[in-house]
Amino acid sequence: MSTLDNIEVDITVELGATTMPIHHLLRMGRGAVIELDATEHDPLRIYANNTLVAKGEVNVEEGHLRVFVTDKVFKIG
């Protein structure tokens, strides 16, 4: 198992996405709200090294933000 300890994997959890002009982004201040293409009921997308590997949901419990994996995504080919 010590060989696996040295493998780096970047994990990204995507709540949703949007496209906006850079000048809108630059004008945003603290507390600004960015509207995403997903609702709170849509599954999160979980990526490992920019590859979709799972879908999940977010949960807040005792002040901790948690991501639960609900579906694994298998890509063959």
From TrEMBL:
Looking up Pfam families in the UniProt record yields: FliMN_C
As for subcellular location, the record says:
Cell membrane
Membrane topology for this entry?
Peripheral membrane protein
Q: Which biological process annotations from GO are given for this protein?
A: bacterial-type flagellum-dependent cell motility; chemotaxis
- For whether the record's keyword set contains Cell wall biogenesis/degradation, the answer is no
Please give one Gene Ontology molecular function term for this protein: cytoskeletal motor activity
User: Which part of the chain is the Flagellar motor switch protein FliN-like C-terminal domain?
Assistant: 4-72
Q: Which InterPro entries match?
A: FliN-like_C, FliN/MopA/SpaO, FliN_T3SS_HrcQb, SpoA-like_sf
Q: What is its main location?
A: membrane
Superkingdom field: Bacteria
- Give the record's keywords alphabetically: Cell membrane, Cell projection, Chemotaxis, Cilium, Flagellar rotation, Flagellum, Membrane
Annotated Gene Ontology cellular components are: bacterial-type flagellum basal body; plasma membrane
Query: What does the similarity note say?
Result: Belongs to the FliN/MopA/SpaO family.
This chain belongs to the protein called Flagellar motor switch protein FliN
Organism whose genome encodes this protein: Devosia chinhatensis
